[in-house]
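The instructor's notes for this session suggest beginning with a concrete chain rather than abstract definitions. Hand out the sequence below and ask the class to guess, before any prediction is shown, which regions might be ordered.
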Amino acid sequence: MTKPGRRSLKLMFEPSLEAGERKQLRDGLSTVLQIGNTLWLGNDESASLERLTLTGDSTAGHAQFQLRDFMGLPTPSDQEGTTPEVDVEGMDLADGYLWIVGSHSLKRSKVDSEDPAAAQIKELARTETEANRYVLARIPMQDGSGLPALAAKSKSRPAQRLRSGKDGNALTRLLRKDKHLGPFLGLPGKENGFDVEGLAVVGDRVFLGLRGPVLGGWAVVLEIRPVGEGKWLKLKPLEGSKGVRVRKHFLQLGGLGVRDLCLQGDDLLVLSGPTMSLDGPVREVRWSGAAHCQEACVLEAGALAHVLEVPYGKGCDHAEGIALFRSKGSAKAELLVVYDSPAPRRQVGGNGLVADLFELG
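After discussion, reveal the predicted structure:
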């Protein structure tokens, strides 16, 4: 196929809004979404969303929205008074709500190379859960000084999420006895454990892409129907499914997992990459007609249209987020890709980086 055109978009973050001792905002981008003349981004070690205002081939103006100010989080603050990471891995806009999803994954403890070997081995056996990672929510939006913004808490139009805690949420409880996914809920993300990366909303249905597990070379996309009731979301049966509340779709991605999802018309664009902590390959494929899917699908590689190969680096430039992007005054969409651990060549000053824009056929 013809190699798609590629250009750059410079993203600039405000130094005063950096996340303290956590990873710099530009170094941990995990999801991106264009809303009007703004870009919304999530960092995988923060509990906030970042809004950048577009100005040509760059951005100017960075606003930060702390999620705890707009919705109830399972753990709004820890003993130090900071909000534990939500690990936002997917976003979408639908019916005036911004949808977000956390990774739903376990973490394995990191070892200190200066510790004795016995201590490092012991530490490697430890895994932990964080309640905020099990967030699946929608937050109402409003116009704020001419720009889209998250709306303040309101009883008439509340933010809503699945009930969750350190033991998971309604989705993971449904999957505990699932023959395909149940055995992987106790494994950390990036170790072929259960790990959500990517969200797309189609009507009242939500598609969730799984980075892991990958089953015999098959990646998994879940389909659910979260319906708002008061301040909560409840998982309702999918229409015409005779009571099924979680539908599983299997995609043959050559051993890769799903790293993000993006809806284009009736098609689902799927960013695929390694489920483990490895470099590349990274590919964009198209699931044609996904929006009209009414039953579980098993899609072999030939049923998925190859869109493009996404560049990756050695220990850097790991593509994490995709979004449809339209320049001001242009009706033609491009694919915006943001990267975790950006290479030095992408870094601009102390708080900026360069993202990629690819032509879409």
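Then share the key points. Helices lie at 117-124, 170-175. The first helix runs from residue 117 to 124.
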